[in-house]
Amino acid sequence: MSECQVKEQLTAAMKDAMRNRDKVRLGTIRLALAELKRIEVDEKSIDDTRALAALDKMAKQRRDAINQFESAGRTDLADQEKLELTILQGFLPSQLSTEEINQLVSKAIRESEARSMHDMGKVMGIIKPKVQGRADMSQVSQTIRQLLN
User: What pLDDT, in 10s, does the model give residues 76-99?
Assistant: First the structure.
């Protein structure tokens, strides 16, 4: 079974948060580790790609919650989610710029020989492994739609 560097980083960060008595950081990291452990139990092992996908999903959940709390006028809860999102993003690779996403999508469209929206699945299949954890997938799919129309 290969070692998961993301899991190791989270474990080290958890120990630091415990030493520093940083309750918010500790709680967020423990949630992430619990999710990775659940995946590991379900799938028998976990690698960095799968761990990053899980962290990316958790970050997306935080972004969605922030939007919902802000639209409901609950800035206190939105601020808590923003803090957790910042902590999670610290374990994800640096985010791709809009220009980098456009270049990757254009290349994937050429590789898949996509001609219309019916070919969007082919393009997503090529691009998803390349941008996992490095870009918001809704932004990626929006870019694909724009370039295929």
Answer: 999 999 999 999 999 988 888 889
Ordered alpha helix ranges (H), the chain: 5-20, 23-43, 48-71, 75-89, 98-112, 120-131, 137-148
Distance CA 137, CA 142 (A): 8
Residue 92 near residue 32, CB atoms below 8 Å: no
Q: Which CATH architecture has domain 5-89?
A: Orthogonal Bundle (1.10)
Are 14 and 36 in contact by the 8 Å Cβ rule? The answer is no
Task: Kindly report whether the global pTM for this prediction surpasses the value 0.85.
Answer: no
- Amino acid identity of 137? M
CATH number belonging to domain 98-148:
1.10.10.410
Asked if 31 and 58 touch (Cβ cutoff 8 Å), the reply is yes
Q: In 3D, which of 139, 138, 105 has the Cα closest to residue 122?
A: 105
